[in-house]
């Protein structure tokens, strides 16, 4: 596994078509290179999703992959703040930044990701694994 990949997968409010300040920042500094999936489950947290990675899972979470190599440090630092990740936040944090293998362009590619870090016991499962589809605003890849 790559310990500092050039790719990031986003599966929630950073993913198109969301247009918050942080999603705009990612789109301006990273390059959308397509759709990907990873083994795990997505849960509905209310106004955003949380995903857990599980290499033994038969289900997959859907997301958008960005190449962030040009401004990797700046992008990850900014998104760490958005996701509440790092020593400056009360521990344990709701999300953690991790690296997972993502099925992208018919191959497994290591990607940074923000995974849910707390209990999901009382959270509704997103059956499709696709938060955009779950909320009725499915992502459509640019032509």
From TrEMBL:
<dbReference type="InterPro" id="IPR009288">
    <property type="entry name" value="AIG2-like_dom"/>
</dbReference>
<dbReference type="Pfam" id="PF06094">
    <property type="entry name" value="GGACT"/>
</dbReference>
<dbReference type="InterPro" id="IPR036568">
    <property type="entry name" value="GGCT-like_sf"/>
</dbReference>
<keyword id="KW-0808">Transferase</keyword>
<dbReference type="GO" id="GO:0016740">
    <property type="term" value="F:transferase activity"/>
</dbReference>
<dbReference type="InterPro" id="IPR013024">
    <property type="entry name" value="GGCT-like"/>
</dbReference>
<protein>
    <submittedName>
        <fullName>Gamma-glutamylcyclotransferase</fullName>
    </submittedName>
</protein>
<feature type="domain" description="Gamma-glutamylcyclotransferase AIG2-like">
    <location>
        <begin position="8"/>
        <end position="132"/>
    </location>
</feature>
């Amino acid at each position: 596994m790559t310990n500092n990949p050039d790719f990031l997968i986003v599966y929630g409010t950073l993913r198109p078509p969301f247009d918050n300040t942080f999603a705009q920042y990612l789109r301006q500094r990273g390059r959308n290179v397509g759709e990907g999936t990873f083994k795990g489950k997505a849960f509905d947290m209310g106004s955003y999703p949380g995903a857990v990675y599980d290499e033994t899972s038969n289900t997959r979470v859907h997301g958008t992959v960005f190449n962030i190599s040009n401004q990797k440090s700046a992008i990850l630092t900014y998104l760490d703040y958005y996701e509440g990740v790092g020593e400056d936040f009360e521990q344990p944090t709701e999300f953690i930044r991790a690296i997972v293998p993502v099925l992208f362009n018919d191959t497994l590619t290591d990607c940074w990701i923000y995974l849910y870090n707390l209990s999901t016991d009382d959270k509704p499962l997103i059956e499709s694994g696709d938060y955009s589809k779950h909320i009725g605003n499915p992502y459509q890849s640019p032509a």
